[in-house]
Design brief:
- With 128 residues, the chain is α+β, with helices and mostly antiparallel strands.
- The chain has a domain of 79 residues.
- The radius of gyration is 14 Å and the shape is globular.
């Protein structure tokens, strides 16, 4: 997918400012983590399929400069990050991960949260 110049500018700026460039992440490719549950991995694939169908560029398992690795990054869309919960909860996220994101200038509103077991892609369809 070729990005419009305005979208490419957003992506370049996001990656320059927030992404650890020591890790290469191709656009619209799914990288899966073997430590995640099967439901978690399947939900990530469903969400990525939905993003591709709607021509929204994404990256998975991107290591940010703050040390966090969000499930899906969508810097050109309304929301920057999509986090899929398999075994963790929103409270786990708020306690363990959100403070690191806040130090990098992000807030909870920069995320869409999807429960892999309960919701699947329902929440993502509402976003689009």
């Amino acid at each position: 997918m070729k990005l419009a110049p305005s979208d490419q500018k957003i992506v370049n700026s996001f990656f320059r400012e927030h992404v650890d460039r020591g890790y290469k992440n191709p656009m619209n490719s799914i990288r899966l983590n073997s430590e995640h549950t099967k439901e978690h991995r399947e939900t990530i694939c469903e969400i990525c399929n939905l993003l591709i169908e709607n021509k929204i560029p994404f990256w998975t398992e991107v290591r940010l400069k703050n040390g966090c690795i969000p499930d899906i990054v969508t810097p050109t869309h309304v929301i920057n990050f999509i986090e899929v919960f398999g075994t963790e909860t929103i409270e786990d996220f708020r306690t363990r991960k959100l403070p690191k994101y806040e130090k990098a200038g992000f807030c909870e509103k920069d995320f869409v949260f999807v429960d892999a077991i309960i919701e699947g892609c329902i929440m993502m369809e509402e976003l689009l």
